[in-house]
Design goal:
The chain is of the alpha+beta class and 470 residues long. The protein contains 12 helices and 21 strands. It has 3 domains: 6-110, no CATH class; 113-206, PDZ domain (Pdz3 Domain, Roll), CATH 2.30.42.10; 216-357 and 380-439, Alpha-Beta Complex (2-enoyl-CoA Hydratase, Chain A, domain 1). The protein is globular, with a radius of gyration of 22 Å.
Length: 470
Amino acid sequence: MLPLPRWTRPLLLIATAALAACGGGGGGGGDGGTIIPGTCSATSQKQFVLDSAREWYLFPELLPASINIADYATAAELLDALTSAARAQGRDRYFSYLTTPQEDSSFLQEGEYIGFGFRIQLQDGRLLVPEVYEASPADDGGMGRGVEITAIDSGSGFVPMATILATDPDLEQALGPASTGVQRGLRYLRRDGQQVEVTLTKRVVTIQPLPATNGTRVFSLPGNPSVQVGYINLRTFISTAETPLRDAYSQFRTQGIDYFILDLRYNGGGLLAIAELLGDLNGRDRLAADIYANVRYNSRKSANDETRRFQPQPQSVNPVRIAFITTGLTASASEMVVNSMKPWAEVAIIGDDTYGKPVGQAAFDLAGCDLRLRLVTLKVTNALEQGDYYDGLAPTLPFACAAGDDLSRGMGDPQESSTAAALSWLNLGACGQVMGTPGAGLRALVAAPEAARTWPRPATAAQAWLPGLF
């Protein structure tokens, strides 16, 4: 039997564990320690993945009854085979993956990754940029929300996007590996139609969890200007989000605000500690017995099940209504917050339906090897034990209001389509348009998905939480 992982805080949604498969200890961070010759062989890595899955995988009944690790060249190929049945059922759509402790921790603890500093979205054959991060190569190159990349130069001249996508649908070659110094030429159209050509060089980018511009705002409620609305754009659930979230809610509490918009439209999840904090910040009047969320493991590991109760903070507020702006990129910790607040406040999702990821990964480290396995090991439910929203949250909510993601306007602009729809719902308590059959929205970021609503396989730890990130 593999040893019980040692749990650490802050935790990844839903949990972060470190498993030393060959003995010894381990933590949730670090660089993997000293690599010990012989422990990092392909066979050792594959056996480590198989043993971890046999013991901890949330869906043991979906694992192959027997499998020969010699049939797979790498641990990644073996992991794909082990999770293929769950992926076909929409339960593990590349949520389990392999990375390194350093890459994993750099993103989740500091928001750091190597890249150009933008995210991409394929829409009707056009490669659009919905978000650019501050002080990144893309930001330095004048790129911003709503620009369209029309051609990429990988060293042999500019190639139109249609040509590139025909042979490189995930843009792995076109945009290059996640290595410092990688250069690419980009030709893009600004929102005003002006064509620009820039050369960008990949470097370490630090994502601010709340944008410098419109990360927080205070609006007036339409039809009742005396009522204020607090707005937060939370990009990702990483450790550095704690302070700006506390600061924002302290301002909201001081101003007596009890109507809120949480913009999670591109937020693919992250740390449980931040998801818990966000619940606490919206739980001013919650009692010590009130349940925020439950964590459930497979039947063999049910002794590890736990219940998280509200812990009101000095900055906590008491929401009357919360409008969550969502798209097909809203997943994991983001969905957990919506689902967990549903029993305690009037909530709605605005925009497009969420991705559908009610499960979480634990981190298992192979001792003496620079390898971390992120494995789906548990699911999360709310106080009413409601979960399993693999098809998105819309069918589970009383209010799911359809709205566009208007790339012609900045996020946090009250005239931007989703923000305006959120303000309208807060005012009226009714949807102007109800979500119907989930649209493609942002579900397919670059490639046509393997199955409906499947994100592309992540090439980096950061892409596992922010698909379309480069």
